[in-house]
Amino acid sequence: MGAAGIGAGLGVLGSGKPIVAEFPELLPFAGITIRLDPLGAWFTLTAGLIVVAASLYGIGYADHALRTRAIQAIFPLFCLSLLLVPAASSVSTFLVFWELMALTSLLLVATEHRERASARSAAVWYGVMTHLGFVAILVALALLAGQVGGESFAAMRAGAAHVPAGWRSVVFLLALVGFGSKAGIVPLHVWLPRAHPEAPSHVSALMSGVMVTLGVYGIMRVGLDILGGGPRWWGFVVLALGAASALFGILHALVASDLKVLLAYSTTENMGLVLIGVGGAMLLGAEHATPLVGVLLAASLLLVLNHALFKGLLFLGAGSVLRATGTRNLDELGGLVRRLPVTGALFGVGALAIVALPPLNGFVSEWMLFQGLVAGGGSHVASAAVTMPLAVGVVALTAGLAAATFVKAFGTGFLALPRSRGAAEARESPGTMLAAMGLLGLGCAALGVAPSLLSTQLDRAVRATGTGVLHRPVRVEGGALHLGDVRGVMSPTFIALLLVGSVVAVLVVMRLTIAARDRRRAENWGCGRALQTSRMEYTASSFAEPLQRVFDDVLRPDLDIDVTHADESRWYERTIRLHAGVRDGIEDHVYQPVLRAYRAWGERARAVQNGSVHRYLAYAFVALVVGLLVAR
Amino acid sequence: MNPGRIGAVVIQIVFVVGAAPLLAGLIRQVRARLEGRVGPPIVQPWRDLRKLWRKERIAPEHTSWVFLTAPLVLVASSVVIAMIVPLVTVALPLDEVGDLFAVVSLLLLGTVFLALAGLDPGTAFGGMGASREMTVAALAEPTLLLAVTALAARAGSTNLAAIVNAALDRPSVVLSAQGVFALVALGIVTLAECARLPVDNPSTHLELTMIHEAMVLEYAGPDLALVELAASMRLLLFGALLANLFAPWGIATGTGVVEMLAGTVVLGMKLVLLGAFLGVFEVFVAKLRLFRVPELLAVSFVVALVAVTASAFLGGGR
């Protein structure tokens, strides 16, 4: 099925012709209409790649984690919905697939509800958030369909230009809220760090790598394709949301010590980066199309694909760690690169890719994003001259913090000494799991070394957004990457070659000039202490502490210290217990008051509903009388 | 590709590798003289490297391949930068391979590997150094890229040759407001990235103040030599970039032998000036407390932002 997705995606992107299919009987009144254009095909391709890897991974993972058979039944359905959402071409079809995706993923999040209470609460949060989002999307699309008098995307596209500007903005904002909640955009991200860690790891990979990006797809489809862009402030809103998500996400990822929570927050960050690209494109393209619009959209789309590859890889790696050690807490891991050599190496590849280092794929998309933003700062739009450099600053700070985050994740999780028995006795995962991760790792390396592999496909997908992109936004000439009319040029292929060449050269020089061949193993330098234990290491929390202190205005960490004194003297402590943690400020200050208010209303409503049948009969009678009076 | 252009790349690599330890030696010598000491000779870093190179290869127990590959990656990334950055001549064959963003990413690649290597032995020092190094790197990154943006704005391209040529064609842009701001911002970041005072003290082994030295504490022998060489190469590359981006005069524009020889001499002179300045500066500056460093970097960020917006509004660009 995943292979079919890849095939369909590549086929459409390769030929530029859409696949069209209609099944009028499948859905009463509306029928299912499918039209896979290059924009959708890019997302179907992304989904297909991860579906293949996740399914392969699921074979080996099944004997570890899946105690219910339900997941085996639902998983293919979830995969299918991921592949079909980008292909839907009418409101009803889209909503059916969208809801199918939401419901199947919800059931998958709840698979381990018997083992962990946190899985139950995650499922509740996710269920509520995804359905609030669904309502927003439903209202947005229904409003637009009502305004143009047709529910197929083609009719909406044709009629959208005649819709009054106020309505267009309402539709756009509602769609932004609905799709943004799926994409995990701040402040609608609260479900993401709960639900993604609780799902089985190959499901997390699909949710974080693919499902979340379909939120971005929705924003692109509705905002750019169907509505055809809008006033400049749309771009500002999207850009600001993207920037907030990127910074908020990466700061929380930085201080998270649960490996899968860390990855989930980093998904919020990456979607933020994607939206910075989309927002920048909307801002610059508000009046008339420029080649830069295409460059920024290309950067966003490439980042979507790259993110799916490396986040998929990292989640699968985290699953492999979980299976081997039984814990996701980085403070209890360590030393895994020797116990799990393949998982360790592949997780390292994913970490370097997500930090956007050459010669891997994250670097290419981040370079494109930077180029687009830098060139946008010097463009004709005066307001862009201030926002774009700020966006560059945000992306750069995000990149720096991401480097710290993933050095922490890989360095404390996989290097150094094991910090628990589980980590010390870890066993490598079965071959199918490793093969699935290897596939994604290969994808990261291939797209990093030779982005020319997909440049024409990317080009078609960008042009299908219908923003009137004039030039080819991405060209590869002689191995060098050219972007629209931007004069910056870079060749990832040559950088990779030069890097490998230099490493080999240094090795050769060492071989030739160093007399001593063998390496002796010796004890660490311990300031004269003889014994070294893993309790002396820096943990993940201690690693992140300096940055946490720098950003404590945003993160607001809690710190609890309990000291119990000895009876003899209060100068001798018996135990000191320290509890430190970082809570999600948005959740505490935005969601909890709403939930409390909701609960208070519920309590008040109980006064009305006391269980007495007489009273209910009286209510029914009053309601009937009022109803008759009103209807008279 | 003609032999002259290949020669240019070779000259640059040889220059960077050969001169980097001398630059470190020069800074130490200047400091020593100002402090009233005789100080080690300028070639002392080279002698140290030779001594380390002949020593036994020792790695701590429990370390993995990350610890062993980090020095290689560190040196290799610096060598690649030496190939693509215009140091001696602008007419480099590999100019289209990487722009300033690529250079920044390559530097970060080295930093990340070294930080991972710091964590690998599982000692408290290594973790402390790695944690602090990544803190500084994360906060320096925005300034670095904004300074790049400011420089790119005046040339209309992020490619190094274009930036240098733009400065050669119109010297006035270098002395404009945005040029000065960008120079200040990049200067501060250089101090942070190269672990110099006031961010880190390269000559300390006092545990609570170390950043870079804490991270590489477990290295010995030839591996340590590679790490030290790479550290001095990075300092030289930053210095040469500062010199050529803001004062490119004297750089060769072709690949003739005489031209490139002159370019090398001029670059050497610029670096001697810069090294002497850094030495004098370090005598008069005390190390900042670790948690004051973010404030310094925040200042440099604001300065870089001013540089970018100035270049947009004052129209110093195209």
Could you please describe the fold and organization of this structure?
- The complex is a heterodimer of chains A (632) and B (318).
- Chain A is mostly helical.
- Chain A folds into 2 domains: 2-496, no CATH class; 590-631.
- Chain A is built from 24 helices and 8 strands.
- Chain A has helices at 2-15, 38-65, 70-84, 91-109, 117-148, 153-159, 165-183, 192-198, 201-226, 232-255, 259-284, 291-325, 336-339, 341-354, 361-377, 384-414, 421-424, 431-449, 455-463, 492-513, 540-550, 552-555, 585-608, 613-631, and strands spanning 19-23, 32-36, 474-477, 480-483, 489-490, 519-522, 558-565, 573-581.
- Chain A has a 3-stranded antiparallel beta sheet.
- In chain A, a hairpin with a 5-residue loop joins β4 (480-483) and β5.
- In chain A, α2 (38-65) runs antiparallel to α3.
- The mean pLDDT of chain A is 84.
- By secondary structure, chain B is mainly alpha-helical.
- Chain B has one domain.
- The interface between A and B is large, with 86 and 89 residues.
- β6 of chain A pairs parallel with β1 (57-60) of chain B, so a sheet runs across the interface.
| Class from helix and strand fractions of chain A | mainly alpha
Order of helices and strands of chain B: HHEHHHHHHHHHH
In terms of DSSP E residues, the strand content of chain B is under 5%
Estimated radius of gyration of chain A: 26 Å
Major sheet details of chain B: none
Average per-residue pLDDT of chain A, rounded, comes to: 84
Strand content of chain A: 5-15%
- Report the strand count of chain B: 1
Task: Give a brief description.
The complex is a heterodimer of chains A (632) and B (318). By secondary structure, chain A is mainly alpha-helical. Chain A has 24 helices and eight strands.
What topology emerges from the helices and strands here?
The complex is a heterodimer of chains A (about 625) and B (about 325).
Chain A: H1 2-15, E1 19-23, E2 32-36, H2 38-65, H3 70-84, H4 91-109, H5 117-148, H6 153-159, H7 165-183, H8 192-198, H9 201-226, H10 232-255, H11 259-284, H12 291-325, H13 336-339, H14 341-354, H15 361-377, H16 384-414, H17 421-424, H18 431-449, H19 455-463, E3 474-477, E4 480-483, E5 489-490, H20 492-513, E6 519-522, H21 540-550, H22 552-555, E7 558-565, E8 573-581, H23 585-608, H24 613-631
Antiparallel strand pairs in A: 1-2, 3-4, 4-5, 7-8
Helix pairs in contact in A: 1-2, 2-3, 2-9, 2-12, 2-18, 2-19, 3-4, 4-5, 4-9, 5-6, 5-7, 5-8, 7-9, 8-9, 8-11, 9-11, 9-12, 10-11, 10-16, 11-12, 11-16, 12-14, 12-15, 12-18, 12-19, 14-16, 14-18, 15-16, 15-18
Chain B: H1 3-34, H2 44-53, E1 57-60, H3 65-84, H4 100-119, H5 124-155, H6 160-169, H7 172-175, H8 177-193, H9 212-215, H10 221-246, H11 257-284, H12 293-313
Helix pairs in contact in B: 1-3, 1-10, 1-11, 2-10, 3-4, 3-10, 4-5, 5-6, 5-8, 5-12, 8-10, 8-12, 10-11
